[in-house]
């Protein structure tokens, strides 16, 4: 049976993973498209060989895994290369995500993706929760987490939907501009609400 799916969207560094982890600790089955995008390029998977063919062997590290920082630098300064990579990976990611969603046994499941709105997946989910923060905070948190330059994080933000665009599709908004204790409380409140939408089905 297809589970009831909550979409969890937000730009880079907005706090999707922080929010998703808290839902997961309440027993909700979470599928993250960023993680799926990692699985499909693990050594031995055909997509990794295609990437090495296209970008050259320099895109692999000595141990045969993808040089993610190197590829990130390349695609976000070259829209054509980014489109090529997305054309290869997005169908595979979608397949992985659907497969993992179908394994859900919790009252509802969560699909997390930075590109949910961009990829039109807001139409696929039953309800959409957007994690929203001011751009300055998004920038600060992403730079600190990824040890990335302001220029690089801004380039990624530019490649994503604007806050306004995401918020236009939101059913619920979690403004993540306070501390993690507050975030936890908001997640608990939302979880109780989603359970009522599901009629408390366990
Ligand atoms: C370029 C890659 C190798 C960089 O890896 P890295 O480990 O540095 O980053 P990670 O995958 O954790 O992504 C970090 C954040 O970057 C942003 N981001 C990644 N890919 C994209 C993209 N194609 N468009 C816009 N933003 C993106 C997202 O906010 C994401 O959460 C990787 O992001 C990738 O394979 N991207 C293409 C696949 C994709 O579109 N993934 C996004 C969701 S499916
Ligand atoms: N309320 C908060 N207070 C302090 N730090 C936070 C808060 N929420 C998230 N963070 C931190 O900010 C960084 C970005 O959060 P997170 O990784 O959850 O974002 P994300 O939306 O999943 O990003 P991406 O799209 O890049 O994967 C992390 O280091 C996280 O621990």
How would you characterize this protein structure?
With 202 residues, the protein is α/β, with parallel strands linked by helices. It has one domain (5-197): Rossmann fold (3-Layer(aba) Sandwich), CATH 3.40.50.300. The chain contains nine helices and five strands; from the N terminus they run βαβααααββαααβα. It has helices spanning 16-25, 33-39, 46-55, 68-75, 79-101, 135-146, 150-158, 163-169, 180-197, and strands at 5-9, 29-32, 109-113, 127-132, 172-175. The chain has a five-stranded parallel beta sheet, with helices on both faces. Helix 1 packs across helix 9 (180-197) and helix 2 packs across helix 5. The radius of gyration is 17 Å and the shape is globular. The chain starts with a strand and ends in a 5-residue tail after the last helix. The model has no long low-confidence stretch (mean pLDDT 94). The structure holds dephospho coenzyme A and adenosine-5'-triphosphate. The site of dephospho coenzyme A (COD) has 20 residues, from helix 2, helix 4 and helix 5. Residues 12, 33-34, 37, 68-69, 71-72, 75, 82, 85-86, 89, 93, 113-115, 156, 159-160 line the site of dephospho coenzyme A.
Radius of gyration: 17 Å
Name the structural class.
alpha/beta
Amount of helix: 40-55%
Helical stretch tally: 9
What would the keywords be for this entry?
Rossmann fold; 202 residues; alpha/beta; 5 strands; binds adenosine-5'-triphosphate
